[in-house]
Amino acid sequence: TKPTKHNSGRKRICCLLTKHIKNIATGTKEHKTKHKNMKAIQFKFTPGDHCIVDDIDKPTPANDEVLIKVVNSALDTAHQPILDKDMTAYFIHKLKEPLYLGYHYSGTIESVGSDVTAEDMKAGRHVFGFLQYDPSQTQGAFAEYITVKHSECAVKPKDVSFEIAAASATESITALQAIRDLGGLRKKDSKEDHQTILIVGAGGGVGSAAV
């Protein structure tokens, strides 16, 4: 489709991700740059080409964090005002340049901090989740590696693909919080102990997760 104000930014991100994946697969010179340890998509509000693939330092996990090699990441509605260069979003959220976008991810744990002892948070585990919002946004999921607190990611179910896991983190936790925490829905303990819930908009992201 013809690029518009509302989809040009997202198209640019998708094109960059596709190009970067091809570079990795073919081992092109662009991907073999040795100035830094990894690639990440960088965003700037300044005029010109505001989305670029940048060479940055590979993060090191803190004591309570895990280092994740990103397999998939997903676009979110939260990106739209930023990618459209909405200056209102820039000032309201006190954003700082450059931004490293991408909140939703799935991937494989490469290493863990010294305080991470949980059995399900070891190197080689497949995990997914979303990055906590940070105005400085010094890292994002549109990168080869990210670090997150071990308590803020979950083990990916074996029957769920990396793609689906990356795209469903926010919707799933929103549905869980709405039904369990706000709605007070409890686990059924007997035939008499049951509750009925009406899910409106069951065809959407949050609704389908709730079902």
Automatic annotation (TrEMBL):
<dbReference type="Pfam" id="PF08240">
    <property type="entry name" value="ADH_N"/>
</dbReference>
<dbReference type="InterPro" id="IPR013154">
    <property type="entry name" value="ADH-like_N"/>
</dbReference>
<dbReference type="InterPro" id="IPR052585">
    <property type="entry name" value="Lipid_raft_assoc_Zn_ADH"/>
</dbReference>
<protein>
    <recommendedName>
        <fullName>Alcohol dehydrogenase-like N-terminal domain-containing protein</fullName>
    </recommendedName>
</protein>
<feature type="domain" description="Alcohol dehydrogenase-like N-terminal">
    <location>
        <begin position="63"/>
        <end position="157"/>
    </location>
</feature>
<dbReference type="InterPro" id="IPR011032">
    <property type="entry name" value="GroES-like_sf"/>
</dbReference>
